[in-house]
């Protein structure tokens, strides 16, 4: 059977810099969450990856079309279909591949995060996104992450990606089949989108709080959570 690691039509694959990863993870606003790679593989015919020692990071895979198989070697097999998400824990031997008749389209992220540690066993199960509004919300978070990731990797872009990652993980694992209208999440999403739309400007905390009509101390407390 033909097998491909990558190289799919219209794919996106962005790698973040690794040379200062420990310094970035220690940054107050990044707060223990950091993306190392992110991508979109549409209609990934013959997609196949196998890693006998796993990866240093977690791998989050969101199937948006078709279906595929994830095998945690010597543990379990997960069938992933449209609207389903699974996170392969760091350092876990695994293989994953698309189903031949229905090749999957996937959004995926390799990342380090304290959130998965704090969530615990909740992050070790497959999540099915049923509500159309919830699917749209999750996909929009991924699109925002891809948009930020395609920019030059200046510190404020990396901070924006870190906060979007945290928001995405909370939406997936702590608010299953619910659409979050929490005020803090709304402020965070609006703030990150404003930063992304004005990426060439040297924005200050005052600029951001003016746009959101909240205090600087309140915005700072949201980013630290």
TrEMBL record:
<dbReference type="Pfam" id="PF02311">
    <property type="entry name" value="AraC_binding"/>
</dbReference>
<dbReference type="InterPro" id="IPR037923">
    <property type="entry name" value="HTH-like"/>
</dbReference>
<feature type="domain" description="HTH araC/xylS-type">
    <location>
        <begin position="189"/>
        <end position="225"/>
    </location>
</feature>
<keyword id="KW-0238">DNA-binding</keyword>
<protein>
    <submittedName>
        <fullName>AraC-like ligand binding domain protein</fullName>
    </submittedName>
</protein>
<dbReference type="InterPro" id="IPR003313">
    <property type="entry name" value="AraC-bd"/>
</dbReference>
<dbReference type="InterPro" id="IPR018060">
    <property type="entry name" value="HTH_AraC"/>
</dbReference>
<dbReference type="GO" id="GO:0003700">
    <property type="term" value="F:DNA-binding transcription factor activity"/>
</dbReference>
<dbReference type="GO" id="GO:0043565">
    <property type="term" value="F:sequence-specific DNA binding"/>
</dbReference>
